[in-house]
Amino acid sequence: MTELLRSRTVGTSSSTPSASAGGVALPVGGIGPVRTSASARASLPGSPLAASAARRFVRAALAEWVALDVPSADRITDRVADEAVLLVSELVTNAVVHAGTAVEVCCALDVSSHEGEPPSLVVEVTDHHPTRVLRGDPPVDADGAECAGGHGLRLVAEIAEAWGTTYRRSSKTVWFQVSVRPAADPVAPEEPMAGDVAPPWASRGTEIVAPAPRRVPARRADPEWTRHGALSFLAEASDLLAGQFDEEMVTSLAGQLLVPRLADWCAIWLDTGGGPPRLARVWHASESRMEGLKQVLEKEPPQLPATARGGALDWPWPADPAAYGPGGAALACRLIAGGRALGTLLLGRAGLVRMPDEVVGLIEDFARRVALALASARRYTRQATISSVLQRGLLPSGIARIPGVESAVVYEPTGDISAGGDFYDVFPAGDGRWCFVLGDVCGNGPEAAVVTGLVRPWLRLLAREGYDVGEVLDRLNQLLGEETVGEAVEAVEAAGGADPGGAGLPPGGGPARFLSLLYGELVPLGPGSEGGVRCTLASAGHPLPLVLQPDGTVRTVAVPQILLGVVEEAAYESETFDLAPGETLLCVTDGVTEHRSGTRQFDDEDGLASVLAGCAGLSAREVAQRVRQAVDEFAVEPPDDDLAMLVLRAL
Fold first, then answer.
1. Does pTM surpass 0.85?
2. pLDDT tens track for 54-88
3. Which terminal CB of the chain, N or C, has fewer other CB atoms within 10 Å?
4. pLDDT tens across 80-93, in order?
5. Cα angle at 418 between 413 and 424, to 5 degrees?
């Protein structure tokens, strides 16, 4: 393990320290107004040895403070030291195992400015990317024994007087506070450590690292931070809230941004459209008090007057403060965007008579950003729901089972809030015939959905009327050229303000009126044959289908023909062939063949055929999965077009 930097810098720090967030000093919350007698910081590598190094670091820091007669250090007992070492060991183990990055440990001795409150030992453990799992051996202690880990937060909640978690854009900090004046034991009281006598645990560690100021809150507004840090705070809030399409995520981020920077606790209620407001999020600087706070607030949702609008109002400190902290100042603010009330924000700061005016203004600005993010998330959710309902109506609820044929479908529209332009269908046409369709409307969104909604029932109707494959495409082409289709598409474009993007296309029809289509008919071969099905199909501007033979040979079937809806008098021809047992027919849209990786496309140099050739002997479902996986692995970016795939395998 890399050797720790050794230095000694112990003394009294400023009474209003701050924490760095995004390069700008911001006050953070936690335990009340304090004066830091001493602090030390260690940077540890994200390795299995970090936990034992953290234990040695804490013991060495405490021993150093006692030796230097740091104020209140003489009150540190064996019990306090052992508890701090145990908890920091567990938290560092958790950070290494679950994050896998370098870990920072900060240890500070804080003297509260509240009369009668004992000094406290505060320890913070910070990891930088809490998403990556450590690869390799589990952490071990100084004797080489494996550390079990996994109980850190449970132990912290049981042992520490207060603890909490602070989330930032690229880091997570878990802190805990232990009083250095334990409750007296009437039978065997603990003796404080004398300042001139080294405590027994001091000999277990010799390293002390460069200190950093303890990150605790200033309980009064800092003019310097108000001028500079507030702007950075609002900018960071806007950046984090922008683009969030889930209102639960918005409320979670809002709580983490407010606590502990501006408040010790906060709660957000969301309006439910006529019903009682829903308590969506509760956040407290000390997580052990969060449940108590939630129970109190659920009983007392704030009822703000209509005249309040988006302004912050002084609010009574909620009842039963003993459940989650001492009394203080509270503010309530309606979350309003576009003239509509979306919810209510309530927050509190212990130890204050009232919030400073500059903080009130900052909270009002922050509340407006939260309201705008909530409004965007709700609009997105509403549009996604409408699109999902529309998409379900445009696609079949299931595909028909064809005798002697195994089938599989892959369908992935690109957008979550717009119906895709690709569609598919497999249905019986009567007289022992089954038909299959794979289509792609040129365009997407509601304009494409209009065409899809017209084409699918037309195809079924024409097929059941007995028209052959070529005739079905001829008549469908004529129907797409009729005025009623153009009027329907143009009405949707006008209603949605859509830009059809039809530059250079024939007048009277945007791209949504054009359609590429692969349409076919299957007839199981009767008794006396060797099995399989007879397939008749035609391609209108669509990627040509491929047939995989049992020996891995791949051939192309059908011939390219013009898109539907472009030339009204076009005549379409079909091709008939037998699909023998074990042979597979693969049909895809251009979301597969034209998927890009830089300047290359997936189907360049017969890329699709090469992938299919390696699927010999696979079932229809396995072929679909193999091709879909190849598309995913072809480029880092996901497909930027709707993707559909139909696989038919003769049994």
1. no
2. 989 999 999 888 888 888 888 888 888 888 988 99
3. N
4. 888 898 899 889 88
5. 40
